[in-house]
Structure formats: structure tokens, C-alpha cells
What we know:
There is one protein chain. By secondary structure, this protein is an alpha+beta fold. The chain contains twelve helices and four strands. The longest helix is centred in the middle third of the chain and has 30 residues, at 176-205. The relative contact order is 0.14.
Amino acid sequence: MSEASTGTSDDTSAAPPSGGESRLTVLLALAANIGVALAKLAAGLFTGSSALLSEAAHSFGDSSTEVLLLTALSKSKRRADRVHPFGYGKERYFWSLFAAIGIFASGAAFSIYEGLHTMLGHYERASESLWINYPVLIIAGVLEGLSLRQGVRQARGAARRHGRSLVGYLHDPDDPTVKSVVLEDTTAIIGLVIAATGVALHQITGSAFWDGAASLLIGLLLVIVAFLLARTCEILLIGQQADVRLIQAVDDRLAQQPEIDSVVDVLTMMVGTDQVLLCVRADFVDTFTAGELEDACVRIDRTLREEFSELDEIFIQPTARSDAAVRARVVARYGRSLADERELRDPA
Length: 348
């Protein structure tokens, strides 16, 4: 036997995470953004404020983003089938990438255009009712704050489950929908402050230049956010490895198995939120028969699944540690062999 591919047939264990909390987070963000967008649009049209119109475009763009994120959550829950044997978990990454593009195409592009248009002198006469913008911005801040609170709450829970800090998890998440909501709401609150500043300077100086400058800054801020989200989705779509602590823990557990002489290679890839594909090359005890080797692979598979719930599919391939070609690939990938890596982690 050259390879043992073991996996449970239990549909419950094989199913992707329900995503219930992620759905709640996105729905709250969607409701907040629709309400905020309508209020900003009404105030912007009434007062002629470029900054408020840009903020309205920002919120409408975020609303469309939330619809795409809901699509991501729905499609990623489908079970593995003949066409996609590793499941549809990466649908969440794909639709989240579209959401990032939507932020750039809708909110950022309009805000930059509106800002430049106003700053260059092509703007409506100054409104005497600019004060109307302030209560609208305050209400928007409250709604965005509630949405942000839910997003941060979920992100903290996910970070705690993965044994990571909140900042570390948001920088490198396995669920881009959470990062999208947190970044969008954070950006929205910053945008509200920028818009309020632009409106205030417009009111104080009588020049709409400041209104346009605020709109331009909001657009540039959205470009940065869109790039950060797109970059996260790109890394996950290409095939990011699992968290290094999970890989090290799996490697240590494999090294403790009595049937294994040496762990030659450990490959992982994120195939969805909390779904990891694991491929192991190990040098087994030479005296094992083919039947004993099969039994050992099944037992090791079960042991790993019991300890690491993120593991979705596990492939175990018996490989001689003396195989120079395999060793060369491992060294080329990681810079050193797994044995050397283990010695650096645990010199004793």
C-alpha cells in the first residue's frame, strides 16, 4: 500500500461550520448600512454636501458588499460532492473577493470623483442647512458602532478559539467575512469623522473645498480597505497553509505514534473556514505488514480528528525518510527538514 486516505463517512462531522454567527454579523451590518445610507443620501441631497453624498455611496456600497457576503456564507455551506470532493468552503473566499472589488468600484470610485469634482469648483451653492448633516452623522455613528460591536465580538471569539490575539486574527483570518464587516464598520466610523470635519470646515469657511477634500479622503480610505480585503482573499484562494501552531501540534502528535519512526513531511491547506486539508508523509516501522499499516493509518486518522476538529480530509502516505527527492522538496519548501525544525522547537 503506497497511500492511505482515511475519512469519516459521518455527514455531521464532514459538514462545514454552520456560519450562524457570521450570518448574524453580516445581517446586522446590512441593516445598519441600508438605514444609514438612506439617511446620508437624504441629507446630502438636501444640503448639497459632497462629503455626505460620498458617505451615502460608501454605505450603499457596503450594503451591496453585505449581500455578497451573505452569498458567500450560503454557498460555502454546501456539502462535498462528486464535482467538488473537498467541499465548497472556498466559495466564502471567492465571494468575499467580489465584495472587496465592490467596495472599490462603488464607494471608492464615486467618493474620489465627487471629491475632485467639488474641489475643482464644480459644486452646488453652499447650503444654509448644513447643520442637518450633524444629527444624521451621529445616528449613523450609533448604528455603525452597534454593527462594529457585533463584528468585534465574533472576531474575538474566533481569535480565542484559535489561541490568537484579536489583531493577529484580523490580520490573517480564515473567515474573510468577519474581517470584511469589522474593517467596513471601522472605516465607516472613521469616514463619519472625516465627513463631519469637512462639513464643519465648509460651514465655518463658506468654502465647499473642504467638503470635497473630505470626500476625497473617504475615497482613498476605501481604496486601502478594498486592497486589504482583496489581499486576504487572494492568499486564501491561492491555498494558504493552516495556522503554524496547528501544524506543529499535528507534527508533535504524529511523532508520538508508536507506528511512526519519523514524520517526513506535513502539508496543509485551508479549504474553508475551520476546514483544513492535511497530507502526511511518514516513515513507518519496517516490520509492519500491509494490513497492520492500514490499521495504523486508520487509528492515526481517528486520533487526529478527535484532537483537532479543524481537520477535514486526512491523507497519510508511507514514505522512506531516506527518500532524497522528498527530502529535497521539504527543504526547498520550508528551508529545513521537519526533523531539524522539531529540534529547533524542542532542543531537549
